[in-house]
Amino acid sequence: MTKEELQNETDDMLIDGYGPEALGQKQKSHVPSEFNPDHLKVFYGKLFPYADFFRWLSYGNDGKHPGCDPSYISRREFSFSLDNDIFLRFQSFHSAAELENSIKEKCPFKIDIGPVYSVEPTKRHAYAHSGDNVFAPVERELIFDIDMTDYDDVRYCCTGADICLNCWPLMTIAIKVIDTALRDDFGFKHILWVYSGRRGVHCWVCDGKARRLTNEQRAAVADYFRVYKGNENSHKKVSLTGHALHPFLVRAYTEVLREFFEKGLLISQTLLSTEERYEMILELIPDAAIASELRGRWQDNGRSSSAKEDINVVRWEQLKHLVSKNKGPGLRRCVEEIVFSFTYPRLDMEVSKHMNHLLKAPFCVHPKTGRICVPIDPNHCEQFDPTAVPTLSQLLEELNERGPNDDLDDEWTGTSLEGAVSYFRTSFLQPLLKACKEGIESSYNAKLQQSKNSFSW
Predict the structure, then answer these.
(1) Residue 150: pLDDT band by 50, 70, 90 thresholds?
(2) Could you tell me if 228 and 237 are in contact, meaning their C-beta atoms sit under 8 angstroms apart?
């Protein structure tokens, strides 16, 4: 890289919010001992599904159909995170082989995917002084990022980046609620859910109409899901106003949230078992008299029923009964607001609103956990176990145990990664590419017809 190119790269990273520590300066590596960067060479050399990955991001434009856009994939931004906090932004590639060779050469700790730009990202500086803002994002999947750390105020089993099977169902609920709405309310069909590799999930909405949404339209979709509006300084984080709940919220509550709260979270997180915990819920009751009565009951009688009954369930039923008996202002949806406060998906809204956000690519290896960022089937997301996701070291052990096998078309066959790649290929990629090719054919025929009509005079 020349001095001028390095300076340009530095300027870009500063513009995009990277601090001086990200500008290629040598820092002390933060790679934990359980993650061996040398294993990435084997992973990228044998297991990463380059062909399917490239076909996905080409959206049918890698074929020979005259309606294909041959420049499409070369205008896509890729970002590589290397050791010592070195970031390489605005990478772009013309072919699957070029992408594969670059990944194998650099062995990035993380690969992020950005938008499709109007011109190739690597050539952006040639247009920088044109004054026409030629270099701009023109297409990008509609994306959602849900992180478990945003639920720290409603889970007691873990905090921060830690997760377990008691709190992970919060991610399952988010997938169920968001996926159903994207399909039923917006008509999207090609949706990819991916485990982040550590503490959350990512959603890629890949329909053509989703990829072409403007920033304003993306913000409107994101706001459609906005219910959780609180912060660490406010007790009441959800307010369900209006004469009637939106049908989307009714469906989310009756089909998903209520049952999960009452049969799952309430018990697994013991939300009403101690004074410190039940006070959080009492603060959400707008009637001070009701909150005081419940507090008195729970303080005077720690076990308000027989030992066979779970105290959290008993106290929740008492709360619902007392609230339903009173018709004071603000109580009409008090129970629903409590359930929403504890269970409704908490989205990183800014990620969804803007085209230019980077998002970690599927099938990356998380450098903290060593786990692969595998797809999640939304139809069976309740069966997904993040603690059972294959790790880099596990996959390498499986390769060593199997030994070389020249009869295999794909190296991941017979490894723990096989199911994830197979799902990605058959359930997501094949239907997506079929729709993309139909769209290319339809658009091409429409242009031909328009061309014919312009000469029919």
Answers:
(1) very high
(2) yes
38 catalytic residue (yes or no): no
What span, in angstroms and rounded, lies between the C-alpha atoms of 453 and 443? 15
Annotated catalytic, 145?
yes
Q: What are the tens digits of pLDDT across the range 163-211?
A: 999 999 999 999 999 999 999 999 999 999 999 999 999 999 999 999 9
Distance of CA 273 to the CA centre of its chain: 32
The residue with tokens 């009452």 is 262
**Would you state the pLDDT for residue 131?**
62
CA distance to 138, 203, 205, 376, per residue, from 193 (Å): 23, 5, 9, 5
Q: Which single residue is written with the structure tokens 């658009």?
A: 443
Specify the DSSP element, H or E, that contains 8.
helix 3-15
- Please report where in the chains the tokens 């070389």 appear, as a residue: 404
User: Residue 102 pLDDT > 90, yes or no?
Assistant: yes
Other C-beta atoms lying within 10 Å of the C-beta of residue 363: 24
Best CA proximity match to 435, nearest among 112, 203, 139, 210: 210
Weakest mean pLDDT among 168-172, 205-209, 303-307, 383-387:
303-307
Residue 213 CB coordination number (10 Å): 19
> What is the dihedral sign for C-alpha 16, 20, 22, 25?
positive
Average pLDDT over residues 426-454: 87
Nearest to 343 by CA among 411, 233, 264, 234: 264
Strand partners, 194: 202, 375
Measured distance CA(34)–CA(36) in Å, rounded: 6
Q: Which of 62, 120, 147, 179 is catalytic?
A: 147
Dmax of the chain from CA atoms? Answer: 91
347 CB-contact burial (10 Å; exposed 0-12 / middle 13-18 / buried 19+): buried
For 115, the enclosing helix (H) or strand (E) is: strand 110-117
Catalytic, out of 145, 336, 337, 411: 145
H/E stretch holding 430: helix 430-455
Catalytic residue among 9, 52, 77, 207: 77
Position 301 pLDDT exceeds 70: no
Question: What integer is the mean pLDDT of 229-257?
Answer: 78
Write out the H or E segment, with its range, that includes residue 316.
helix 311-325
Alpha carbons 176 and 257: distance in angstroms, whole number: 10
